[in-house]
Amino acid sequence: MSVCVRLTKSIIEGVEELADTPNLKLIIAHVERYLSFTSYDDIEKLMSLDVLGQLNSKSFDDRKKRKYCLKLLKQNYAHIIGTDFHRIDREDLPLSFGYDVTAKKMGDETVDRLLDNAYKVIKNREIDEIVG
Q1: Is there a contact between 78 and 55 (Cβ–Cβ < 8 Å)?
Q2: DSSP states along 4-49
Q3: Which residues, including other chains, have CB under 8 Å from residue 118's CB and lie 6 or more apart?
Q4: How confident is the model at residue 78 (pLDDT cuts 50, 70, 90)?
């Protein structure tokens, strides 16, 4: 069971402190899910920090969440796509689903950028090199 907590000033300040830690990269997982329990203004504050945003591929299958995902991509608040495959028996959609929807709605250039970002994360590049 997950607990949804509204992003507060103290949470955002705590993330900011962590983001300032040398040799540490923060990835805000499933950033699109936050919009169901917090304001877009708070998401903007959080994502203006030195962090990366990750979208869940399965969220592109839900009309409302897909809208959030595309908005977050357009605002450069989301930088990579992932999945929720924590267990082999869990039903989820493959990464390709999120990329396919993104290509259809935003073009191949956006998908190329997302794939390049994933490569840069794996290669441990600096966050400013990833978020551009």
Answers
A1: yes
A2: -----HHHHHHHHHHHTSTT---EETTGGGGGGTS-HHHHHHHHTS
A3: 80, 81
A4: very high
- Name 81's bridge partners: 55
> In whole angstroms, what is the distance from residue 9 CA to residue 21 CA?
19
- How much of the chain is helix, strand and coil, in % rounded to 5? 55, 10, 35
Strand order in the sheet with 27-28: 27-28, 52-56, 80-82
Q: Cβ distance 89 to 62 under 8 Å?
A: no
Instruction: Say if residues 129 and 120 touch (Cβ distance below 8 Å).
Output: yes
Q: Is the pLDDT of residue 95 over 50?
A: yes
On whether the CB atoms of residues 56 and 26 are closer than 8 A, the answer is no
Pairwise CA distance, residues 104 & 63, whole Å: 14
Quick check: 126 and 19 in contact, CB under 8 A? Answer: no
SS3 assignment, position 98: helix
Tokens representing 66? 């897909």
- Give me the residue label for tokens 């990750």: 54
